[in-house]
Every structure is written in structure tokens, then in C-alpha cells.
Structure to design on (506 residues):
């Protein structure tokens, strides 16, 4: 996601392309580092126990929940948050799709939903099966409604925008794949 | 969260040296341990990060797989050899937690997550022998719909939450361990303990011992295997009951079978009585049901969870029928 393709320095965490020092206190979660220290408030704190997915970010392209992750564990890694997705050319296509498909109401879960969906798309592309994949040995898994629903089940939306969220994700990734 | 020292191990020797410190714990993905530390239920003085240890999945000489303990759950579930030769393991992992958690959680950490129930978390309002040994258990006479029906004790009725471990129990996995006194291996069934009067002791590991590798023996039976999880919602919930099974038929008879259950006990439950009843017998729905009955003759339901006994019997019967149907 960042223009800089070289690895982050061992003693720093690269966040949206900028290197930051690892916090001195190892108790600081990646989520709290983002929000409290770096003022990157796009990533949201919902349950703070890994159940809601609002704090989902990408670490070296993999989606994780930043609340259950100690920041110090990510030294040398590259983190992408919602703030790192848009470019000067405009919104990330998935951000645009969320607007077009009414993929949110209050918006609190949206940054986590979008980061999660980006991670999900790369998992699908490399053939990671899911709980609802009929054939585990299949090389190609179609991004069906059921597949996306299952794969996004770690992100809750209390407004009930799930159908819009899935439509936005399908609109961005499934149609491109078809 | 109680303050702790953090260090990161570059190899197993360094991990063992750092992990030998008093009150030290190994840290994998943190998905269970960090949560429990935030609740101050776990209060280690030191954390040794082992997520940068070797995370390879290697072919074992003579068949089978050697899975590094630092391999992430997703990486194991998506591995081509696991998907083709041990589908029950892929299916079990994919039935657990969320994609984000599976990306974080290590295989070793999945094995060592705490056996737990809501009363274990309720530090302020409930008694728990697992949290405070000798204090008593408020789950036994409390809301215990999701608690154990096999192998529980007066001290603890919690269930082991892992799905992956149920598959590993069925697959006769071997756990490789290293500690201050060298290396040892143990059958998967010997890693976790039943609660007895010490529910705070969940495994047979010695202090400072580290799980390094999980070995899957070569098993042709595993190619026809599956996992079924019954839960209150269709995704991201612990099992009420789950079944890992592998079946090999010879004509209309059961040549061999592996069966393990989740959601029913303090540890992943290998259903040896049912397996014994099945081996050499007819592969019919009646025989599958009879084997399931045999497994639950000693079941001890609590106030709210007697439904699990019938649910488990039906799930076992259905999964075996599914595998037998595939075989025909």
C-alpha cells in the first residue's frame, strides 16, 4: 500500500509509509499507539477484545485486529490503516463503493470493514478457503455472496448495513474477477 | 494491564533462556493472552515473543507433516498438503474465530489458549477455581448451557474452545516440546489435562517448556475426513458441540475410524469408546448411532446443558453418515 517498498527499520513501525518509534511501554496495543500517540483516529476501538473488528488494520498486507496486538510486536512491520488508503487521485475504489452501496450508516465500523475487506480480497486471490468453501482443493474460489458474508463475519455493524457492505465488496472485487 | 518485561526470541535456544525467567510466558499472536492480561486475569512478569521463530510446514520423512509452532492458523488452513491430505484440519481451523484472529494466532498458541467460561472472565462478581484455585465454582450451579458434559469435576465445568485442537486429537498429532531438560515428544491426547481438583493446571507442560513443532503422522484415513461445528450462530461463535471424524470403509464395514469432539469437555475429547464400537462393524446409521450412545454413557449434564448430549449423538451420526456416503 505504501510507495516505499523497502522493509521498515527493525526498531520502527512503518505506518502508512512513515516510520515511528516502537513505544517504550510494551503494554501499548497497536490500536492505542495509532489512536492515542499518533492521532490516527480512523481506526476505531469498539469492544477492545477482538470480537467486533472495528480496529482491523493491515500488517504487511494481512488483516488483524489491532486491539489484541501489542505495538512492540510489530517492530519492522508495515501497517496500513484507513488513513493510508486514499491517494491524491481520490478515494480507494472500495471507499467509493461503500458510498455508492450505502455500506454504512453511523460509520463507526467502516474503517475496520474496509481494511478487513482489502485483506479478505488478497486472501481470496491467493486461494485461502473459508468455512463455506465447498471444495477445499479448489484452486479458484469465487467471491460469492456467501463467501464474502462468511469471510467478513469478524466485522460487526450495529446499524445493520451488512447487505450494503457486501454489495460494495462484491462490486469492487467480484465484478473485477468475473 | 500489569507491567511486564518484553523480549523477542530469535531462535528456540534464546526463547528457552528468556522463558526460564520467573513468571515468564511465551507470547504468540496474543489473541487470548493479551485479552486475559488486559482483564488482569493473567499477570506475567515477562513476555517472550516467539512469533519470529521458524514458521515452516515441512514434509516429514516417510510421510506426514511437521508444523512449526509459530505457523499462523491461516497459513496452516490454506496449506495445499493440509487441504488435500488432512481436510478435517483445514475445516476445523476455518470454523474457528474470525479471519483476523486466524491471521494472528499461532498454532502453538492455539494449543495453549486457556480453557475458559464466562465465569472465568468475571473477576469482579464470580468465584472460579481456575482463576483463584480453591475459591469455588459459580458455573456449576449457574448459567451453564455451554459447559462440559464429559470429564468435568466438582472444581470446573469449562470447555476447551479450540476447533483446531479437536482435529489434531482425531489425527493422532504428536507435540514436540523443548525445555531446560532437553527435548521430548508426547501424543496430542497427553498435552491437555482434565480439570480434576486443579483446573488451573490445563496442560502437562513443565514451567519454561516450549512447544516447537506439531507433527502430523502419515495417515491415509485422514484424506476422507471432515469437521462439523454446531453453534448458536453460523459464524464466529464457540462450538456447542463439534465433531472431527475420519472414516475408512471396506465394503459395507468400518475398516478404521477417528473421532474427536469439541465443546463437550475441559480438553479436546477423543471418542475412543465410539471408535471401538465402530471398528469392524457395519457402516450403517444404526451402528453410528449406537457408537455415539456408547461414548456418552458416562455423560454428566448440568442444569442447562443436557441438550448437548443428544446434539452430540446426532452430530456424530450425521458426520459419519456423510463420510460413509462420500465413500460409496
Amino acid at each position: 500500500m505504501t510507495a516505499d517498498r523497502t522493509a521498515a527499520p527493525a526498531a520502527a513501525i512503518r505506518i502508512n509509509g512513515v516510520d515511528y518509534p516502537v513505544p517504550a511501554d510494551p503494554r501499548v496495543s497497536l490500536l492505542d499507539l495509532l489512536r492515542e500517540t499518533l492521532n490516527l483516529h480512523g481506526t476505531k476501538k469498539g469492544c477492545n477484545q477482538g470480537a467486533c473488528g472495528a480496529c482491523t488494520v493491515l500488517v504487511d498486507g494481512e488483516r488483524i485486529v489491532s486491539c489484541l496486538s501489542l505495538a512492540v510486536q510489530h517492530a519492522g512491520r508495515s501497517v496500513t490503516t484507513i488513513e493510508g488508503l486514499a491517494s491524491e487521485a481520490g478515494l480507494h475504489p472500495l471507499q467509493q463503493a461503500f458510498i455508492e452501496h450505502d455500506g454504512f450508516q453511523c460509520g463507526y465500523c467502516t474503517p475496520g470493514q474496509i481494511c478487513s475487506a482489502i485483506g479478505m480480497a488478497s486472501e481470496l486471490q491467493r486461494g485461502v478457503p473459508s468455512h463455506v468453501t465447498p471444495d477445499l482443493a479448489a484452486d479458484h474460489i469465487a467471491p460469492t455472496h456467501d463467501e464474502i458474508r462468511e469471510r467478513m463475519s469478524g466485522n460487526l455493524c450495529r446499524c445493520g448495513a451488512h447487505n450494503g457492505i457486501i454489495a460494495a465488496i462484491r462490486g469492487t472485487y467480484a465484478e473485477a474477477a468475473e | 494491564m500489569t507491567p511486564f518485561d518484553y523480549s523477542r526470541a530469535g531462535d528456540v535456544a534464546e526463547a528457552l533462556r528468556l522463558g526460564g525467567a520467573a513468571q515468564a510466558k511465551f507470547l504468540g499472536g496474543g489473541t487470548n493472552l493479551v485479552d486475559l492480561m488486559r482483564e488482569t486475569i493473567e499477570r506475567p512478569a515477562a513476555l517472550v515473543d516467539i512469533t519470529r521463530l521458524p514458521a515452516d510446514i515441512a514434509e516429514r520423512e516417510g510421510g506426514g507433516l511437521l508444523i512449526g509452532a509459530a505457523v499462523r492458523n491461516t497459513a496452516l488452513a490454506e496449506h495445499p498438503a493440509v487441504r488435500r491430505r488432512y481436510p478435517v484440519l483445514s475445516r476445523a481451523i476455518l470454523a474457528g474465530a474470525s479471519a483476523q484472529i486466524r491471521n494472528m494466532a499461532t498454532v502453538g498458541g492455539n494449543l495453549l489458549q486457556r480453557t475458559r467460561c464466562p465465569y472465568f472472565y468475571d473477576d469482579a462478581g464470580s468465584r472460579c477455581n481456575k482463576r483463584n484455585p480453591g475459591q469455588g465454582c459459580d458455573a456449576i450451579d449457574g448459567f451453564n448451557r455451554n459447559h462440559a458434559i464429559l470429564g468435568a469435576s466438582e472444581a470446573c465445568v469449562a470447555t476447551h474452545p479450540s476447533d483446531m485442537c479437536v482435529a489434531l486429537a482425531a489425527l493422532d498429532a504428536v507435540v514436540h516440546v523443548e525445555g531446560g531438560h532437553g527435548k521430548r515428544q508426547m501424543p496430542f491426547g497427553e498435552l491437555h489435562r482434565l480439570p480434576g481438583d486443579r483446573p488451573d493446571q490445563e496442560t502437562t507442560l513443565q514451567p519454561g517448556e516450549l512447544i516447537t513443532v506439531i507433527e502430523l503422522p502419515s495417515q491415509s484415513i485422514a484424506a476422507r475426513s471432515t469437521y462439523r461445528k454446531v453453534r448458536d450462530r453460523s459464524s464466529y461463535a464457540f462450538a456447542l458441540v463439534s465433531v472431527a471424524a475420519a472414516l475408512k470403509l471396506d465394503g459395507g464395514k468400518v475398516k478404521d475410524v477417528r473421532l474427536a469432539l469439541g465443546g463437550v469437555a475441559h480438553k479436546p475429547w477423543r471418542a475412543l469408546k465410539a471408535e471401538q464400537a465402530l471398528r469392524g462393524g457395519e457402516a450403517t446409521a444404526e451402528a453410528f448411532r449406537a457408537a455415539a450412545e456408547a461414548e456418552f454413557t458416562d455423560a454428566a449434564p448440568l442444569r442447562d446443558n443436557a441438550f448437548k448430549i443428544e446434539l452430540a449423538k446426532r452430530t456424530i451420526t450425521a458426520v459419519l453418515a456423510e463420510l460413509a456416503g462420500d465413500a460409496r
About this structure: Chain B touches chain A at residues 1, 3-6, 8, 27, 29-31, 34-35, 38, 47, 49, 51, 74, 77-78, 83-84, 87, 90-91, 94-95, 97-101, 103-104, 234-236 (CB under 8 Å). Chain B has two domains: 5-51, 54-328. The radius of gyration of chain B is 20 Å.
